[in-house]
Amino acid sequence: MTAAGPHPRVLLLLCLFSSAACNMFAFTEEPSERAGKADGYCSRILRAQSNRKDGNSEFRLRVEGDPESYHPGSTYRVTLSATSPSYFRGFTVIALREGAEGDKDEDYAGNFQIIDEEETQFMTNCPPAVTESTPRRRTTIQVFWTAPPSGSGCVVLKASIVQKRIIYFQDEGSLTKHMCEKESLYGDATDKPLLDCCACGTAKYRVTFYGNWSEKTHPKDYPRRANHWSAIIGSSHSKNYVLWEYGGFSSEGVKQVAELGSPVKMEEEIRQKGDDVLTVIKMKAQWPAWQPLNVRAAPSAEFSVDRSRHLMSFLTMLGPSPDWNVGLSAEDLCTKECGWAQKVVQDLIPWDAGTDSGFTYESPNKPTSPQDKIRPLTSLDHPQSPFYDPEGGAITPVARVMVERIARKGEQCNIVPDNVDDIVADIAQEEKEEDDTPETCIYSNWSPWSVCSSATCEKGKRMRQRMLKAQLDLSVPCPHTQDFEPCMGPGCSDEDASTCMMSEWINWSPCSMSCGAGIRSRERYVKQFPDDGSICTLPTEETENCVINEECSPSSCLVTEWGEWDVCSATCGLGMKRRERMVQMPPADGSICGAEVLEVEKCMMPECHTIPCMLTPWSDWSDCSVTCGKGLRTRQRMLKSPVELGECTEELEQVEKCMLPECPIDCVMSEWTEWSECNKSCGKGHTIRTRMVMLEPQFGGDPCPETIQRKKCKIRKCNRGQGNSDEKKRRKEQREKRRSKQGRTEGTSEHPGCRMRPWSSWTECTKLCGGGIQERLMTVKQRFKTAQLSSCKDRKEIRACNVHPC
Fold first, then answer.
1. Is 75 helix (H, G, I), strand (E, B) or coil?
2. What is the pLDDT of residues 751-793, one digit of tens each?
3. Which segment of the chain is annotated as a signal peptide (predicted)?
4. pLDDT in tens, 308-319
5. Where on the phi/psi map is residue 274: left (φ > 0), alpha (ψ -120 to 50), or beta?
6. How far apart are CA 492 and CA 475, in angstroms?
7. Are 560 and 584 in contact (CB under 8 A)?
8. For residue 291, what is the domain's CATH number?
9. Domain annotation covers residue 15
10. Domain range for residue 478?
11. Residue 423 domain-assigned?
């Protein structure tokens, strides 16, 4: 360090105060190696910061949702804020691995993403750190932080604050956030990313999608009429193919899913990847978005993975929405132990595809140009967002996905099975795949399996065949050309995901006749609907003829089953309905059939006064009653039936709250104080008055005007020569005051015709911020005989204080 250069500690502190000073320091100390010394430069910044640990709860570094742990690769919104009336001019935010010093590249955890370039920028000589773009007063800044990959351990986010010339920094407290990597719900099943897989054989999985997005869980602006999930599209694939990922750009296929809910282009893109894709995953759309599971089964699909294609991705649109989706990206199903994950469960929050700039469910199309990167939605994106939370809390998940392993095939590397079912499945698979075909026997491929010999859920058999093409050695017999395996009827096998699973038949009902020929029936019910969402076509009822006591009386007759009841004769109130049956076989002796063929009973319809309530559909919601802030909106429907028919009690108008961007709030000032006394006893002087800022402007309101006014004052003309004499006396008083401060414990001030006590101390300011007043007094200690009453009196001075905004 040469004598001409400034002290490095001073420059480091200046660096934290201003990015311009930071650049100046880099040029001064290391003009030729600025780019190559970034890491060492960062560590020096951290050491400089660590010299000040002034705890201050007015400042806070917060990660959205206040998580105690992070998901590897996930993106979080980080906010640095000051509590009113505090503010800061400059700042530094950096993320380090726990215990790291910042000397090496690997010491830094994750990476930051700039949200507003006018507010934030990467530090020129320390790229991992974020600092201010320009030094000015501010109360909050925000950046995105993407967590490091799996295995990174604990991280520490640190912030420093520059307020005037004071640096606040904390190793622990409100300016430091400590987070560790979140452990998987199922041990090592979902380590991510595990790009090189060492597992053997293949595995088969079932993915099930549970949509939890409903008006109950997400009530704000929930779209009641058109809510749905689009068709789900995805695949199992290799590391060379990326369907979608945070921080990446949407392909045309992803864009069409996100904006239109159409999977066609996405499926085309997937199939074009050839060997990089093993299975295409597809599930039907769900209208409406949510129904109880006992009404509609959760959609599911099956897919396979192998060593090279062990990743699974999918997406589905949350509709209606601008371009919002949920899904998994490159979920790794290969474990570190060279096996296949048994089960993966994840809650899903929506993400933005970066192709449309709308911020509500039903925003009009507004293409984003240029296209933005894919990012997760947050609760602070926009006040009109349905997920908005002014506190920045975590978004409630809108869906859950469960991926379960249902089979493994081929020789497995990890020979320890996960459970008893795996042991049985592995043994059965090994037995089935044994092939005792001699090399001298040349066969065609096996034909498809035949239909099962059993049409019920009882056990049957099915067959497949192959043809012997050549027998190269006649001394070696060739094995069978037919193969059989047990099976059950359609819908009875758990492995058949495209058919219904039916219950056993219930016992036959009693015969419809107590004598002679009749009919009986039996029923069964659907135990499980098809996983692909199709309709069950298998019969749920069977009928057959029956005969009771064939030697019945010849006068008996055979009648049909009762028909359906007719419509009630009344449209409201009490009415009658009837049903009939027919004589199928008259008595053998020619007599009249005595069985009843007509039944009549009463029926009750809704009370008649409800007929007038024939209503039109609801109109669209009106515009919000205000142009900004909170308001109301309404919708109406009309009565279609005549009023003369009765009173309708149904509501014809609905009102709900609506929220638009906050209204501008202008600055509010207090009244002016009285003018102070003139600062001169004769001749020209000045007087002042002040006022305070009662409310700072917000949301673009009018700025605050001046808080201090000054005007000239003139009490009386000074006597000729008296002015010079007064000026000499005033200078003499000042000299005596200075001597009094140096050599005397108490001094006095002189005024023409009297001796004054010294000025009192300034009083405390009447306000902590927004403009206050301080005053001090000088009182008369002794009056001379020659003193005039008007020139010898107590004096008071007033000044403004704490004029900074609140």
1. strand
2. 667 888 888 998 988 888 877 888 888 888 887 776 555 567 7
3. 1-22
4. 999 999 999 999
5. left
6. 44
7. yes
8. 2.60.40.2130
9. no
10. 441-485
11. no
